[in-house]
Write a structure and sequence with these properties.
Strand content: 15-25%
Radius of gyration: 22 Å
Helix content: 25-40%
Number of helices: 12
Distance between the termini: 43 Å
Order of helices and strands: EEHEHHEEEHEEEEEHHEHHEEHHHEEEEH
Oligomer: single chain
Strand order of the largest sheet: 7-12-18-17-15-13-14
Structural class: alpha+beta
Length: 450
């Protein structure tokens, strides 16, 4: 159990150069996520300091550096404005003077080492460290919804957990990781950040086809119900699986031996293919009668540098394209399943994701309903090893563990990040019913032995 010590609001610094008001329209990349659940993450850090040092020294430092960082990240202190009349108005992000971020300070008597372990652990126990998005309010024109919330929890003598929740329509992983690293840098360097500030100019997203209007038309009649309370019990356990660099190289070598025409197999492709096929082989519904039923693996790709014209890498917002790998069930659970998956994924990335002329081809049809069949049998990915969230160092070192709590709410989703204790390795986070996790663990381990 945790003891909640304080709930406060942290605004950008008063009298700073922060704008009095900032309004940002949503691009079509943002509108895609308007009805999506918040993204919830936990960073666990080892920290041996006392409760008194935490409260008297660390908490004031965290608050001050958070305020200074928000000066450069105003939308995080602001709100999503969702129109009551969706026929005449569209949603937008707005910051006005006086807006702030909700921050909770807590102390836990829980077992820090249990929480940061890799073994299966009850998923429900993580939710007391996750901040809830504050409730919406309403004016004559809009529902006003906070977009970001924070919680810092001390485990006396053992560690600190920083929990953060954000609406996906606010920004993608690159954006949120950029903020967390900027805050960490500001805290560690006593008010001086080494990182370049973000840009919020939505005009860098070129939309000559007015896809934003098409997407808004597709979703505006869906009831907007920003109920962000946690759905417990999850009836799931969380576990982390590690692929070391040597494991990943073996997977790559195995794929290239079976598919010699492949020029390159990335660590992401090798890992995703291995985990996807292991999930299918260990699934209770592996006895499906139709062995030709199609399975789907869905991953998001940051396409800032892949767009034409390119979008600045420090653009804050969403700039993601979904890669969807579609393969028959029988081929994936067969002996060459990993190689088949890797071939499909590699070709998709090379021919579409890395091709400026193809990456957004047909984007206006993304929300026409044709993808609905995908989600019933899809495995998805949250996060990317490309954005190293665990390197956010507040002054007491890199994070020991990242937990992406929001994958609990998905039918089947994995989290992916750099391995904290193995150079070149990757950590795969899973949230599954206990029996399914046990079956997966066996298949995952056996595959590495062979």
């Amino acid at each position: 159990m945790i003891t909640l010590l304080e709930t406060c609001r942290i605004p950008p610094p008063p009298g700073s150069a922060a704008a009095a008001e900032l309004q940002l329209p949503l691009t079509f990349f943002d509108i895609v996520w308007i009805h999506f659940q918040p993204i919830r993450r936990l960073l666990f850090y080892e920290y041996s300091g006392s409760e008194s040092h935490f409260l008297e020294t660390l908490v004031p430092k965290l608050k001050e550096s958070l305020s200074l960082t928000l000066k450069h990240y105003l939308p995080l202190a602001g709100n999503l404005l969702y129109p009551l009349n969706t026929d005449h108005q569209k949603p937008l992000l707005r910051y006005i003077s006086g807006d702030s971020v909700s921050l909770k300070i807590a102390i836990s008597g829980g077992d820090f080492d249990e929480l940061v372990g890799n073994h299966p652990r009850d998923a429900d126990q993580f939710y007391e460290f996750v901040p809830e998005i504050p409730p919406e309010t309403e004016d004559s024109d809009y529902k006003i919804v906070p977009v970001f919330a924070l919680q810092v929890t001390l485990f006396p003598g053992r560690g600190i957990c920083i929990g953060f929740s954000n609406l996906h329509s606010l920004g993608d992983a690159r954006s949120i990781v950029g903020f967390m690293r900027a805050w960490a840098s500001m805290c560690k360097l006593a008010g001086e950040s080494e990182l370049s500030p973000p840009i919020f100019d939505k005009s860098v997203i070129h939309d000559p086809l007015k896809i934003d209007d098409t997407f808004w038309k597709a979703v505006k009649n869906i009831p907007f119900k920003p109920s962000y309370s946690f759905r417990l019990p999850t009836n799931k356990v969380r576990a982390t699986y590690t692929l070391r660099q040597s494991d990943i190289q073996k997977l790559k070598d195995s794929v290239l031996a079976k598919k010699p025409n492949l020029v390159h197999v990335s660590s992401f492709v090798a890992t995703a293919s291995y985990v996807w096929t292991a999930l299918l082989k260990s699934s209770a519904d592996d006895h499906v009668e139709d062995r030709n039923i199609h399975e789907y693996f869905v991953f998001s790709v940051d396409i800032r540098e892949r767009m034409n014209p390119a979008v600045p890498t420090n653009y804050f917002g969403n700039c993601l394209c979904a890669g969807i790998t579609e393969i028959e069930h029988e081929r994936l659970v067969g002996e060459e399943g990993i190689a088949v998956s890797a071939e499909f994924m590699s070709e998709l990335i090379r021919n579409r994701m890395n091709n400026k002329d193809e990456v957004l081809k047909g984007a206006e049809n993304w929300m026409d309903g044709s993808r609905n069949k995908v989600w019933a049998r899809a495995v998805g990915v949250s996060g990317s090893p490309k954005f190293d969230l665990c390197s956010a160092d507040f002054g007491w070192g890199n994070a020991r563990k990242l937990e992406v709590v929001s994958i609990d709410g998905e039918r089947c989703s994995i989290s992916l990040c750099k391995c904290s204790d193995s150079e070149g390795g990757l950590e795969i986070g899973l949230s599954l019913p206990k029996e399914r996790m046990t079956a997966f663990a066996a298949v995952f381990a056996d595959g590495l032995k062979s």
